[in-house]
Amino acid sequence: MSAVIRLDDLTLGYDGHPAVHHLHGAFETGSLTAIVGPNGSGKSTLLKGITGALKPLGGRIEHAGISVREIAYLPQIAEIDRTFPAVVSDLVSLGFWKSRGLFGAIRGDDRQALDEALQAVGLRGFEQRPIDTLSGGQLQRALFARVLLQDARVILLDEPFTAIDERTVGDLIALVQHWHNERRTVIAVLHDVEMVRRVFPQTLLLAREPIAWGATSETLHPENLLKARRMTEAWDEHAPWHDHAAKHHHHGDAA
Ligand code: ADP
Ligand code: MG
Could you tell me if the CB of 48 is within 6 A of ligand 1? Predict the structure, then answer.
């Protein structure tokens, strides 16, 4: 196995203030990894660092044998401007930007790829639907179609299953598993610990610094989950990722 992304004493943050620090480790080529941690623990920040959009405050990120153009990134749905006047096929076609350029011609086989991507996410017939009329699940399907078109070796998903219907979750997990079978490297920020255990072989548990990183069954050990909660100053008492073992402890003594 070889690493496709290596973190070397990495610290990321904003305006000189670290948000997540001293990350050390690697994502293996073809690995399927969940990133889990309380709210504000630096999960989205890490994904932004991996895309290259956020420069390290310290340490470094090594992309082994790939350029950042070969990374597909699906931001948290809250960060997407749904009022932008676009229809589904516009949104999905953004997946061509990296290969064709912003004003590059859409070719005949692109048209077919677009049809296939919409078909794969169950949005055939939605081409001309304005994106502000889509349900949360439909919008997430369209964003997955965009990732499909990017045909990227590394795929980053930030909370792709939050606030969408169960059927969509099932369909999109099947796509994630398909990407994994194709030996793409997939890294997803998730809250549902049961889903992580079921679908993701590797897990990185973050609490502004790495608590554990490795096989999911070991990383999500109750002791680690408890430690992650204690180490994060700003965490949400009702965060859905809380594990059963942690429920019996008082919340007031964190930080
Ligand atoms: P998570 O995704 O785990 O909920 P984030 O990576 O979004 O956490 O945030 C980690 C920390 O960085 C939080 O304290 C958050 O307030 C801060 N942060 C996130 N984005 C910005 C930003 N654009 N400017 C300043 N601080 C930010
Ligand atoms: Mg986040």
Answer: no
